[in-house]
Amino acid sequence: MIRLSNIMEELEKIAPSELKFPWDNVGLLVGDEAQKISRVFVCLDITAENVKAAAEFGADLIVSHHPLIFEPLRSVTASDVTGSIVRELIKNNISAFCMHTSFDMADGGMNDLLAQKLGLENVRKFTAQECIDTNGEKLDGIGRVGSLDVPQTMEDFLEQVKDALCCKAIKYTGDLDDRIQTVALCSGSGGSEMYAAYHSGADVYVTADLKHDHGRIASEIGLNMIDAGHFETENIICLFLADFFFQHFPELEVKISDAKPYFNNF
Q1: What domains sit in the chain, N to C, each tagged with a CATH number?
Q2: What is the β-pairing status of strands 39-43 and 61-64?
């Protein structure tokens, strides 16, 4: 069997922990580096449902994108949501490793995966000159910019995004007849990076968790935006991780979470 420390070493190569944001909490959050691993469960979030599925699969390890623990735990009790999940992990001897912003920022990581899913070419990072808001404050520059091989209307590109990310519904700003070729993106909650997308000269910005003010500002500055959903823009990590384990640890059994987005459309 493979030791968890061996797996952590390889995961560190694709998502170096030094890339994480200061507020983030990545790496081994529950478990023992010396644990021997034979089965791995991969998911976006470590939820009670996913822990149950992992335990039924007989997993020794869960690898997720979002950290289970953000704030320091003051107690680990059954009455607390995070505490109860930690208790179930320990009961079932399942370690938990999380990646998050280190994977978001990494070359070949979440945002490059999203660009690939959307069919973009000539993908690049935002430049330092682009990562400035209207007050001159520096932005994180976590996203990417790329281009479509053939220009499309906004309406056609919306359909492409829906199909690529399996979105049931998406919201957008702009005109359905607008010409789209240069595309900026940021997986997850990327509203704060909208000025980087604007300065990049993108015809549209694809992200998630957009607020009323994001839409208002986008309309004022003439930036088309697409909110494709937090879950939908990041759940793509699951197939990536399954392939990662197949390539690096083919002797391990891997199961992908079949969790669905938390929000439905009525």
Answers
A1: 2-102 (3.40.1390.30), 107-233 (3.40.1390.30)
A2: parallel
